[in-house]
Amino acid sequence: MKVLKHISIVxxxxxxxxxxxxxxxxxxxxxxxxxxxxxxxxxxxxxxxxDNFVPPSFADFTVVGGPNTSVSNYSRNGKRSxxxxxxxxxxxxxxxxxxxxxxxIEIDGETYKTFPITIEVTKAVSKPNGNSDATDLAxxxxxxxxxxxxxxxxxxxxxxVVYKLYVSPDIxxxxxxxxxxxxxxxDFWSQNIEIKGLNVLExxxxxxxxxxxxxxxxxxxxxxxxKLKIEPLVMDITAEVPSNRRDIFGRPLVTxxxxxxxxxxxxxxxxxxxxEGKPSDFKGAVGNYSFKVTTSKTQLNATESLQAKIxxxxxxxLKLFELPKLTxxxxxxxxxxxxxxxxxxxxxxxxxxxxxxxxxxPQYRGKYxxxxxxxxxxxxxxxxxxxxxxxxxxIDVMEGPMAVNSNNENTAVAPKQTVNTNSNTFxxxxxxxxxxxxxxxxxxxxxxxxxxxxLPFLAIPLAIIVRRKKDExxxxxxxxxxxxxxxxxxxxxxxxxxxxxxxxxxxLALEKALHNYLKAKLNIETSDFNKEKIESLLLKRHVENNxxxxxxxILENCELARYTPIxxxxxxxxxxxxxxTISLIxxxxx
Length: 590
Prior knowledge:
By secondary structure, the chain is of the alpha+beta class. It has helices at residues 2-21, 132-141, 447-475, 477-492, 494-498, 503-522, 531-540, 545-560, 568-588; strands at 25-29, 33-35, 40-46, 51-54, 61-76, 79-92, 96-100, 104-107, 110-113, 117-122, 142-148, 159-167, 172-173, 178-181, 188-192, 201-205, 208-222, 226-230, 234-246, 252-262, 266-270, 287-295, 299-300, 306-316, 332-334, 338-346, 349-362, 366-370, 374-379, 384-389, 393-397. It is built from nine helices and 31 strands. The strands form nine sheets. Strands 11, 12, 15, 16 and 17 form a five-stranded antiparallel β-sheet that branches. Strands 22, 24, 25, 26 and 27 form a five-stranded antiparallel β-sheet that branches. A hairpin with a 2-residue loop joins strand 26 (338-346) and strand 27 (349-362). Helix 4 (477-492) runs antiparallel to helix 9. InterPro entries: BatD.
């Protein structure tokens, strides 16, 4: 009897240990029937930690929140308990019956799957999720706002859009927010300003105390007049609304409410620049500028060189207009200018300077005046045009040859010469013959015979040398990679090079080449990518910061070229920079 009792106890302990060690992995939904305007929560729970969790595709739903991960690991009455949950918030796309397929995870080397769940989506309901209090409270206490510095600017006048998320102190927001729709600034030249960290600040919204974070800052320059629309920023967030319930430690529990917030679209009324008083040499500069023309020297000898610099500094649309051209006498040889930009962009717009530096080489001795140059701009603060005119500069060439005057009246005229006729009228007719033997020489033992005989023997050492060179070239991994990168750059930029000189066609081809390169090398579709995401991808692939910055600047130049005049020199510089940058990226990608 005692033996039977002991066996029963052992069996009970064994069964209990098996039950305790059993792995559980299951999917739970907040409801199986919901309105098309409601949100569905699905939790994937497990009682042991695992790896390689793969959720279902959620093809018939939009993921508006998640995955949120929660872990509980505690001991009660000497018994340890573990629970890990992956949570998603889903929004149905349309009415109907849909099946959420299996999720999988690996635990202790075994793969576990959940059971499929069928969800019925009905018409819209009056009280979504049956939690109107929490939803209403979240709607009343969370606001996404687009603050525009000036809604009635002039054409090409800088404005700033700052996106702020205001949250009342009464509720919270989880960190798993995401941007659902990123605003596109059509008909604007735009540049995002980098935000280093999301700092929580104190402020007011409609007269009430709020906390807020600045999500985005963008500087815009309108490129046409009239009413221009700024598309909204849309975000999916999870609000944490306090409830009356408490956990086992007495702490208040919160209700997590998935919510879509939008800053709404904004309309900017752009005023055209006034026609009254517009200077004839006005080229689109808007802002507040200073202008000067300088030369590196004013005295030199012939065939020596000097530099003439045309420079504009100040605050305004520095990247969106063309500098005036330098005009000099024809006796001075002038080369295409070198364009430089030293511009920084902050919330007040572009500031800094741009310049064109010409190299001038005089050919003859003398004094040559460089005529004065004028630069005109529109000042939006004073609402008037201003013109700045440089002083005339005289270049004194002290030593060198004198210029020849082709209109000299004292030029000697050569005397006429008497023409003597030749009495032998038919001298051009050949009257003597020069016959040669046309019988062919025998091929055997001829020069050609011996050359063809010895040629294979002479080709053997040549083939050995060529083979060794090829082996050395194949072994040069780094060199081959460099040559391959250079060929790749020429391949993608071939179309752009063919259209050099045609501004719009060239920059469209250049931008397409850059996007095709990214698509080929990173296996991504770049149509929905912005510059920030491209920059992030390249940095993750260990491309150097300065190379990534050059690549982004070329993309910005392609966008900028649609709205500003571009010279042949600028196109050539952008092409060379693109070829160099693609080559460097291809060498550094890992």
